[in-house]
Amino acid sequence: MTAIDLGLPQLGGLDGVPTTDEPQKAKEYKSDQEVRWCPGCGDYVVLNAVQSFLPSLGLKRENIVFVSGIGCSSRFPYYMNTYGVHSIHGRAPAIATGLAVTRPDLSVWVVTGDGDALSIGGNHLIHTLRRNVNLKILLFNNRIYGLTKGQYSPTSEEGKVTKSTPMGSLDHPFNPVSLALGAEGTFVARALDSDRKGLTEVLRQAAEHRGSALVEIYQNCPIFNDGAFDVLKEQGEAERRLIPLEHGKPIRFGAEGEFGVVRSGFGSLEVAKVADVGEDALVTHDAHTDDPSYAFALSRLSTQDLSHTVTGVFRSVRRATYDDTARAQVQQAQDAKPADLGKLLHGRETWTVA
Amino acid sequence: MSTSVEGGTGNGANPGPNGHRTEVTKLDRVVIRFAGDSGDGMQLTGDRFTSEAAAFGNDLATLPNFPAEIRAPQGTLPGVSSFQLHFADYDILTPGDRPDVLVAMNPAALKANVKDLPRGGTLIVNTDEFTKRNLTKVGYESNPLESHELEDYLVHEVAMATLTQGALADTGLGKKDAERCKNMFALGLLSWMYHRPTEGTERFLREKFAKKPDLAEANILAFRAGWNYGETTEAFASTFQVAPAKLPRGTYRQITGNTALAYGLIAASQQAKLPMLLGTYPITPASDILHELSKHKNFGITTFQAEDEIAGIAAALGASYGGRLGVTSTSGPGVALKSETIGLAVMTELPLVIIDVQRGGPSTGLPTKTEQADLLQAMYGRNGESPVPIVAPRSPADCFDAAVEAVRIALKYRTPVMLLSDGAIANGSEPWLIPDVEELPDLTVKFASAPNAMDGSDEFWPYVRDTETLAREWAIPGTPGLQHRIGGLEKADGAGNISYDPDNHDRMVRLRQSKVDGVDVARLAVDDPSGEARVLALGWGSSYGPIGAACRRVRKSGMKIAQAHLRHLNPFPANLGDVLRAYDTVVVPEMNLGQLSLLLRGRYLVDVRSYTKVAGLPFKAEELADVFTNVINDSEGTDSANEHQLAATEAHE
Ligand code: SF4
User: Fold this and answer.
1) What pLDDT does A109 receive?
2) Tens digits of per-residue pLDDT, B437-450?
3) Residues annotated as region Disordered (chain A) (predicted)?
């Protein structure tokens, strides 16, 4: 088989989506439906952040579509005054792929959860990421099954006692960022529901990325897994646990910036005290590193017990998207040969009965 | 083989170039079966002979039969691949029950097929493969060519490999490569025997091996060597002519079911002015639809080979939501995986076409064999009350019209539609009267463009319905002011917000059912030349051919039988109940255990006689003629018709 280089121009994530000069407000993005998440659910915060952020893109609201699967977070589209599909369990990335491929004038967002994206829909997620379809995927990770009332999820910690695991969960959990990078996702990021600023910044970069953007959002479920991420929010704890990434800056954290990330062993990274290693040893974050191994090494610094959690944009690289190239092939075929139905139906060998 | 002249004396004679005269016998129809090892190129040989017959203007029908394994162990029974071709000077309905001529390229092919050859049939054997080792491999203790085993047949022993190698001696091709061309030798010999035009095959070979001209020439040499062998040796007393068929006027081409189906989709997409997205996953015997559509991107077609069956249909549904023509293609196991998404399409009331090229089941079953056992899966294989219109083509060429019809229903009623083809018509081929593009139906749709809320607000309500079709409006993303949300949860009638209201759910379930029940479906036509038949043969899908051929036999024998064939399995034609009640007995042959019969009994409280078979192969006309004859006799309650039974099997099919 021969490989054909499609040599596509480099586009921005929103190129092709019609814009408007009318100023927009967050309110316009709220549908008239009553939001029905449990009081205190982290989903509210994310919904508000998204509704506040979208106006800044200046897109025509009718050209935005939210597609979700099944789970608490997947009710999201009902609350957005955009086009929306609340689909079936795990399949949102596949449905969104069909939409994105055929409609370059739409900004397509997928809302999913840890069960939806990583369990029942794991296959679609990794294939969407490897194809690099121009979709923005918001993965709400609460480390539990909420809608079905509290079974462990593929991101629950080992030994977790839930309704379905009274003696403790036996499953080894996924690190969603590692998984996405393993699938060579071109844009992979993480944010906390409580960090409005960090979340908004990640969403902005995701929207501008051409290709699949996976954003993992740590989201608290106060009903079935309350406080799962509390240590990342407590003053005194958060500073020494959270490792925020900023492109082009040395990776440094701690209340006084006393910790940093340095290289170690076979391409991996580790946390060190700046005082011990010196500032020059710190790794400068480069999200555009083409080799996903670097971002993967970063993702491994996040541990299930949250002793460290890396946030921000791990990886943001340019690669041709599936939808752009699929459309280019159709265009190429159309340019090469007019669509003549009569000719097609006749084929090459015919005979006539008089 | 029915001849128009008696015995072996032809009504014409042809002096060959070397002076010996070969009789020419006129026939009205012939069935040839090419059989060999999977690696012998029998499908290609059969295909080429089919093209020659088509180019000559015969009516024809074909039945490829090959193993699921790509290369089953060489020379074994499971490795046998065959291609049967029926061609005639009149309109025929089936690939033929049994071959008149069997070409056996090795002992395995002989063993697997000779039982189908009627006494007196012609057997052409490639003797080079009849070695002790090959014979033992398939359980022949002695060489059947040297015993009396084959004395009922007219046997031609031809050392095809040796002769081919001899013909190619000067080409510089290695022995092995030369031997590989023996299928073209066989084709050449048969082409001579049946006075077939040869230019098409030579042109085909030049194109197929355009990048390897030496192979092209070698194959052409082998092809000519086969022809010349027939002409110069005196082994063949007669050649045969089958005149062109007197088919309805028009321009024809040969087409397989899968190609016709792909073309139907392309035509429908053009007529609807909607670009198509095929979301699919490779599966036998449906993959050729993907292959075909992938070649025609210039018609605005996107083909998406997904990570699995579910993603294939999900992407198609996503495209439908975006205002495109979403199509997915698969076989039975794939439908099982797609069920949940079909349910979502039922709930969201979006157009979608699901193609199921049925194969033997359950589970992986018989991937390369045919069956009609997915009818109930198509009808009921989803959770909840989830009605879906079902359309089934009855022959390879009919796949074109069936595909256009499926798209028409999907678009008009905003519903997923099942198109039930099967392995026999998918790979089988026949002449196709090419339709006039100008006469294809207009399938254009109107997207919603304005708010439609029934409370007078300026909102868009997704579940406001057309009062006649009950279809909801199709408002596609990008339309200003019509932002709305749909999904798998039950929605309120009209406004379309999530609703758990018991009465609303009851209403919505009934509305979805009424919509499908109300699909405009043509009345069922009954073919009864006598107008006096008391027995009706009713079928659906690919059994049309054998049922029709069986009815011809029965009528030829002087008995009366009516035939009707269902294109629409859901909803049924409005007059179906009346048709069923108009006959004393309705006999329903199906390649399953009686799925249509179950539906008919349940729906109309009319008993039917179910005749079923699940052997992976189409019915034989002879077999069904016997069944019909027995049913007619039973229904008349006399034995007086018994004599007809024998006559029936001999009749003009
Ligand atoms: S169950 Fe948990 S995740 Fe679901 S809505 Fe309630 S709080 Fe939120």
Assistant:
1) 98
2) 999 999 999 999 99
3) 1-23
DSSP alpha helix (H) spans, B194-252: 199-208, 213-232
pLDDT at A354: 83
Indicate whether this model's pTM tops 0.95: no
Burial bucket for residue B336 (CB in 10 Å: 0-12, 13-18, 19+)? middle
pLDDT at A2: 59
CA of A41 to the centre of ligand 1 (A): 5
ipTM for the predicted complex? 0.97
User: Could you tell me if residue A234 is inside a domain?
Assistant: no
Question: Where do the structural domains in chain B lie, given as residue ranges?
Answer: 23-242, 253-439, 526-639
CATH number at residue A108: 3.40.50.970
**Is the pLDDT reported for residue B325 higher than 90?**
yes
B9 pLDDT band, cuts 50/70/90, is very low
Burial category of B170 from C-beta neighbours within 10 Å (exposed 0-12, middle 13-18, buried 19 and up): exposed
CB of residue A223 inside a 6 A radius of ligand 1: yes
Which pLDDT band holds residue A6 (cuts at 50, 70, 90)?
low
Residue A229 in contact with ligand 1 by CB distance below 6 A:
no
Under CATH, to which class is B526-639 assigned?
A: alpha beta
Q: How many domains does chain A have?
A: 2
Residues A310 and A329 in one domain: no
- For residue A290, pLDDT over 50 is answered with yes
Q: Nearest residue CA, atom 2 of ligand 1?
A: A221
Joined tokens for residue A71? 């789970």
The CATH architecture of the domain made up of B253-439 is: 3-Layer(aba) Sandwich (3.40)
A43 and A151 share a domain?
yes
Torsion angle, alpha carbons of B255, B320, A111, A54, to 10: 130
User: Looking at the structure, do residues A172 and A286 belong to the same domain, yes or no?
Assistant: no
Q: What whole-number distance in Å separates Cα of residue B489 and Cα of residue A130?
A: 31
Cβ–Cβ under 8 Å, residues A79 and A30: yes
Both tokens assigned to B583: 């006959």
